[in-house]
Each structure stands twice: as structure tokens, then as C-alpha cells.
Amino acid sequence: MQKLYLLIEIKLILPVLLATMLFTSCTSLQESSKYSFSEGIYKAKISREPAAKVYVDMGEESLRLYPAQDYTRGQAVQLDTTSKITLAIPEELDAAPGHTYTFSKPSFDLDVLTIPFKYRPGTAGIPNQLNTTFQGALFIGARRDVFRINYKATPVGNHRRFLNHFGYSFGLFSGIGATTVNEAVTGGQVGYEYEGVVLLNGVAGIVGINNFTFGLALGFDHLLDKYRHDWVYQRKPWLGLAFGLNLN
Hints:
This protein is mainly β. The chain has one domain (2-36, 103-246). Helices cover 10% and strands 52% of the residues. The chain has one helix and twelve strands; from the N terminus they run αββββββββββββ. The chain has one helix at 2-25, and strands at 40-45, 52-58, 62-67, 85-88, 92-93, 101-120, 129-131, 135-153, 159-181, 194-209, 212-223, 237-246. This is Outer membrane protein beta-barrel domain-containing protein. It comes from Pontibacter lucknowensis.
């Protein structure tokens, strides 16, 4: 029995250590191009006119916008250099400009997710559950990032430039987690309690505000041991709160 508990503890500790190492090694990736407003193709809304696709060329206190034509993957971007628009964005202004510049772009999203809270609806006579065991997953989805440049008044009477960023994505995730297995959740087939390992899969919607990423996950668990056919939560849906770290 001691060997069994030791084996279970190793199975639980290893994923936690691996996830911790991965999170630690990837913290430097937070300052990637996805979180910074840099040169490239965007959809820009700078007035009351509909948003238009442009190439943004960055200056210290200005942006140069070149209308960009639609192109297919693998082709060079076609720019209309005769219709350049220059936006002055100094660090400070005496008077508020009265408008906000908005730039957005789509991308592919690859995240590591942790799901600290998992809500399970009641089933088989067991009431609703809120699980807080370890859950880690890899998320793949489509993402859109939005950057907004505006000015806010300061106590000294001028207006300082601010750049706000948020992104949102929707996609699929897959990973592993831990769950408590005992007599109650196996119809009396297990006479003791242990922490089982589950494979989790599902869909998630994620929102990123600057470097903080969170969202909701809808998933299903698959117990990876011989009691999976007796486990009352096998392939039953759950709703979880997810936090993420971007990898790309």
C-alpha cells in the first residue's frame, strides 16, 4: 500500500514540477511582439470612417500609415506609398485630442493553461462540486489583439499618452489533471481514496489585458486507470476558470 501511495504521489508531483519549470522558463516570453505595438499590418480605425488595413511604420512620436492591399499567403505585401497618413502621437499634449486610435491584428495562439477551479454539476446523487486539484493544459486557437492609443489628463493640466492592449482568443485545449477517486464517485467499487490522473479536453475562450490572461474553459475528463468505467464523472462536462501564459 505504501508503494501504491508513493507511486501516486510521484505521478502527481511530476506534472506540477514540469508545469512549474515550463512557466518559469517562459516568463521572458511575456514581452513578445504579441504584447507590444510594433511595425506591421493592422486594421486601423483613426476616425469615424470604417477600419482599413494599413502597414504601420513606427516613429518616436509619430505613426506613418500606408494603405495595404489584400494579399495571399506567401506573397509580398503591396503598399500604396502615395497615400501615406502621418499621425502625431507626442508623449504629452496641452489639450486632449478628442479621439482614440485603434489598431487590431489576427494571429495564431499557443498557450499553457492552468485551471485552478473546476465546477462539476451534480450527478449520480452527488451534489455540485468545486474542485481545486492540479489541472494543466496546452491551448491552441485563433487570436485577435487590439491596441488603443489615447490621452489622459494629468494633475498638472496636460495630457499624457497611454497605450492599452487587450487580446481575445478561442480554441481547443488538452492536458492532464488530478481528481479524487473514492467509494462515493465509483459506485462503491473503490474501498479507499486516492488521487487519480485524468486526461482533460475541451474548448476555451481567453481574454488578455496587457500581460494578464484569463478565461473560461468547458471540458471533459477521462480517468486514466482501471476504475474509469465506474467513475461517475467520466466524460461528463465541467466549467472551469483558466489562467494562461502565451508561448508564441
